[in-house]
Amino acid sequence: MLLRFRVLPLVFVISLLSGCGLASKAFYSAGDKLFQPGDDAVASMQTYSVAQFLQPFT
Description:
By secondary structure, this protein is mainly α. Helices cover 67% and strands 0% of the residues.
């Protein structure tokens, strides 16, 4: 009974958390490639300063 109600749910929760960790690493590495492509690559998204961003609204 102890194995069924205490250990198995613990193993299940730990496996879920490790899967979430792997998914978050993949998500953030994809974001890093999108916003910081490297020295020799062209940025895929244009960045603005605060003044440039606010210019159409003033």
